[in-house]
Each structure stands twice: as C-alpha cells, then as structure tokens.
Design goal:
With about 375 residues, this protein is mostly beta strands. It contains four helices and 16 strands. The structure holds zinc ion (2 copies). The site of one zinc ion (ZN) has 8 residues, from loops.
Length: about 375
C-alpha cells in the first residue's frame, strides 16, 4: 500500500507558522505570524529564536501574503513585515534594517517532523562565548596575511598549475644545438603476409559478423539497468520564509533500482585473412644496391575453401639517418626522397630537446663527407 499523507499523519503542502520561545518569560511555542509580541509578557518576537515546529504543533496559515523576510528594526530589533517602511514598535525608519535570519529548510523525505528544531539557546551562547575567548576555534579565521585557509589552498593550487604549465611549455620548446656526423643511412621495407583462416570468435548477438557460421548463443549478464522501484511517492521539505512562516513543499518522487540485464552471448566461426608473418628487406646504401621490396613465396592452401592460402598484405617502409652526436647515437626518419639527399659521413647540426631526442626538422648539413673510397 502506498504511503499517503493520511496514513503517515503528515500535514499537506502549504504555508504554516514558525514557532518561537519568549526568552524573557519562558513561554514556548509562540506563533511566528500571530504573536509578534509575547502574549504573556509583551516582549517583542526575537527572530533568532524561531524554529520549525513538530508535526503536531503545525498551525496552517490561510491566504498568507508573503512579502519577503522580515526587516529587523535598526533601533529596537523588532522584526517588521518587509512591506513596512517604519517600525511598528518605535517608529524608526526601516530603510537600513537587515533581513531577519532564516533557518533554511528541513528535509522530511517521506516521513513527518517528529520533533521541532528548537535550538539549545544556552548551549549556543556557551559555544559563542568559548569561541570568543579562544578556547575553541571559530572555523573561518584568517591564518596568513588576512587570507583564510580555503583561499590559501585555492591560491596554492592556481600557482602550482601555472608553474606546471610553464615547465611543460619550457620542456616542449627547449632546444640546444648539437653538432655531429651522419654515421649511416639505413632503409627497411616490409610486406605483411596474410593467411586465409577459419577463426572462432565471440561477441554479443547483434555484433556477430553477417557471414558467421556455426553460431552458438547462450544468455549472459550484459550489465545493469535502472527500473522503477515501487510506485511514485510524495516527499516534502519545509522552507523558512523569514517572516515567521514556512512553506511545506511536496513533490512526487520515483525511486529506481538496478536490475540485471541479460542478452545473448555467441560464439561463431568466420573465414578471414589474417596477418601471420612478414618478410623484410633492409640495407645501408642508397644506390648500391638501392632499396627494394623483399622476395617471398606464398602458400597456395589445401582444403576445399583454400584455408592456409597466403596473400601479400600491406607494405611498410622506413628510411633512417643515423646520427653520431659526440658518441650519442640518434636516428631521424624521413621519406625516401628526403633520405636520399643525405650522405653518410657529412657533418651536421641538429636541435636536441630536453629529453635528448633530436628535432629532425632542424637537421642540417654543415660540411661534406670526407671522400672515402667505396662510400657514396
Ligand atoms: Zn514573554
Ligand atoms: Zn523599532
């Protein structure tokens, strides 16, 4: 059975009176709107002593015109309606009057207000006095140059981020010029060899390839999904309006829970070309002999579907200039045309980053190779 306001004893959404206690004569549970003064001793209502009532003490307000939080009279501290211009108590101008404190909201969820939110005034005053004389620390006092702890932490984080960004920019752009020689030119050409194969795979049903066969599927947990948990129900909160009244606001809430989601997980077979090996040719000369693609022979396959048959797949090539920077060996890759412009033995200069890697775009030849017989 769904919980209703009737079954829980909860009052409905609407406007109700805050309560206050007279601190002069001790009268309790005075009404925030009706009793602007204590009916017992005549003392003015103290808005700091207001509190949310327990469910059984709630007094509804019909046709309550909310005009804003009360203004506190700057002369006599009497709370006045925000619509007033002059204090009803002493006649002072309310233009500089501050708004009465509000006590925020209290969340009831699906429950009711079992007790009121009256504060322990004696305890509050004791705590304030302890903080004042320094026995306990107030939370938010300046710790350095008038800055609070939180501001210092935020400032520190910002400073650290700036330093880190600066360090990254420096590391990426830092170059020192180094000179050396080209110790060798190397090239390598590779061809992937693929073989036609029967492959077992597994996947969710909708992801199984269209040409799969020998499919075998069974149910398996795929994840979780959110499903409705019970019927929608009403949840309420009380919001202090600062004028001696509060508003009870209620809304319908739908709870959800996680539930297991099941789907078909399948194993299957497909016929595919797969890279099984590669053939490579490499060398250290430009023209003697020039770079060539490697030779290979392909298997023709045996079975009816020609499983085991091979074909040439993708080709890869790399052309590297090997640098000797004062005994440090580094390499730069180029395309074939650029690579062919370099000569082994040439003197070079190149920018080197902070990690020691050469910036190959800055590689320039500054002296020709010594004429060695047998070298290009
Ligand atoms: Zn009183
Ligand atoms: Zn006044």
């Amino acid at each position: 059975m769904a919980e209703t306001p009737e079954s829980t004893g909860r009052k409905e959404a609407g406007t109700y009176q805050m309560l206050w206690d007279c601190k002069f004569c001790g009268t309790e549970k005075l009404l925030g709107i009706t009793h602007r003064h204590c009916p017992n001793c005549g003392a003015a209502q103290d808005p700091t002593q207001r509190y949310f009532p327990a469910e059984e003490d709630m007094v509804a307000l019909e046709d309550h015109q909310y005009v804003g939080a009360d203004k506190i009279c700057p002369a006599c501290q009497q709370p006045n309606s925000a619509a007033s211009t002059y204090c009803t108590e002493c006649g002072a101008d309310l233009a500089t009057g501050e708004a009465a404190p509000t006590f925020g909201a209290r969340d009831l969820g699906t429950g009711i207000a079992d007790s009121d939110t009256r504060r322990d005034v004696v305890q509050d005053n004791f705590n304030a006095e302890m903080a004042r004389i320094g026995v306990t620390k107030a939370d938010d006092h300046p710790v350095f140059l008038g800055l609070r702890k939180q501001q210092l932490v935020i400032g520190g984080v910002i400073a650290a981020v700036i330093v880190i960004i600066g360090a990254i920019i420096f590391a990426v752009t830092y170059r020192s010029e180094k000179s050396g020689t080209i110790s060798a030119l190397t090239w390598e050409r590779t061809i992937d060899i693929e073989e036609f194969q029967q492959i077992r795979g597994e996947d969710w049903d909708e992801s199984v390839p269209g040409d799969a066969y020998n499919e075998d599927c069974r149910e398996k947990q795929r994840g979780t999904k959110q499903i409705e948990d019970g019927p929608p129900h009403e949840e309420c909160k009380d919001v202090d309006q600062g004028d001696g009244s509060f508003k009870r606001e209620c809304r319908m809430v739908q709870d959800y829970r996680s539930a297991t989601e099941v789907d078909d997980w399948c194993t299957y077979t497909v016929d595919r070309w797969l890279k099984t090996r590669e053939v490579t040719a490499s060398g250290t000369t430009k023209n003697d002999p020039p770079p060539t693609w490697p030779d290979y022979t392909l298997a023709t396959g045996t079975s009816v579907k020609r499983f085991g048959q091979e074909r040439a797949g993708s080709q890869h090539e790399s052309y590297r200039v090997v640098l000797d920077l004062d005994g440090d060996t580094k390499t730069c890759s180029f395309d074939q045309a650029q690579w062919e412009t370099f000569v082994a033995g040439s003197k070079i200069e190149v920018g080197v980053g902070i990690s020691g890697g050469p910036d190959c775009d800055t590689l320039k030849v500054v002296g020709s190779a010594p004429a060695l017989p047998g070298r290009e």
